[in-house]
């Protein structure tokens, strides 16, 4: 498990270098391990119409799902920050819905990280079960 988390942390850190961030200059990278064994990576992509900006975590999930991946083992998120990179609230909601209660590896700029399950990061979440 530790080897897997280390690998995902490195891939997320590398992916942040491709971020398109002319407004915030905050580079975020994400790496997603699929049950198939494949690892997807992505970065955040901003827009001059600010609300169209999309976070790295959502891009990575949408890439994987649109390629036919259906189940996931873990997600890593990294940035230039000295602090562990926390997924925003919107991304917590999306990760929980599409990937379930997987571990989230929150990485700092040195490659150190903290891990927590999605259910801890988003307690008492609104889910599809509430629509029934
Ligand atoms: N950002 C992410 O990519 N993921 C997060 O979970 C938090 C925020 C991006 C969005 C925006 O491009 C920049 O970081 C500053 O908010």
Shape: globular
> What string, H for helix and E for strand, traces the elements in order?
HEEHEHEEH
Overall structural domain count: 1
- Nearest-angstrom radius of gyration? 14 Å
Count of strand segments: 5
- Percent helix: 25-40%
Instruction: Give the CATH superfamily.
Output: Cytidine Deaminase, domain 2
Q: Which CATH class is shown?
A: Alpha Beta
Helical segment tally?
4
Instruction: Write out the distinct hetero groups bound to the structure.
Output: tetrahydrodeoxyuridine
Q: Please indicate the percent range of residues in DSSP E strands (runs of 2 or more).
A: 15-25%
CATH fold group: Cytidine Deaminase, domain 2
What does this structure look like?
With 132 residues, the chain is of the alpha+beta class. The mean pLDDT is 98. Strand 4 (103-107) and strand 5 form a beta hairpin. It is built from four helices and five strands. It has a single domain (2-124), classed as Cytidine Deaminase, domain 2 (3-Layer(aba) Sandwich). The chain binds tetrahydrodeoxyuridine. Residues 21, 24, 26, 28, 44, 46, 53, 55-57, 87-88, 91 line the site of tetrahydrodeoxyuridine.
Briefly, what is this?
The chain has 4 helices and 5 strands; from the N terminus they run αββαβαββα.
Please specify the SSE layout and strand pairing.
Layout (H helix, E strand, L loop, with lengths): L1 H14 L12 E7 L4 E5 L12 H11 L5 E8 L9 H11 L3 E5 L5 E5 H4 L11
Parallel strand pairs: 3-4
Antiparallel strand pairs: 1-2, 1-3, 4-5
The site of tetrahydrodeoxyuridine has 13 residues, from α2.
């Amino acid at each position: 498990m530790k080897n897997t988390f280390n690998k995902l942390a490195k891939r997320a850190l590398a992916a942040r270098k491709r971020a398109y961030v002319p407004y915030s200059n905050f580079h975020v990278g994400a790496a997603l391990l699929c049950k198939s064994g494949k690892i997807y990576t992505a970065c955040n992509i901003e827009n001059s119409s600010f609300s169209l900006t999309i976070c790295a975590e959502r891009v990575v999930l949408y890439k994987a799902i649109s390629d036919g991946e259906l189940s996931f083992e873990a997600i890593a998120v990294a940035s230039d920050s000295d602090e562990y990179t926390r997924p925003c609230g919107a991304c917590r909601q999306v990760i929980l819905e599409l990937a379930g209660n997987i571990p989230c590896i929150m990485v700092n700029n040195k490659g150190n990280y903290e891990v927590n399950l999605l259910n801890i990061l988003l307690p008492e979440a609104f889910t599809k079960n509430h629509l029934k």
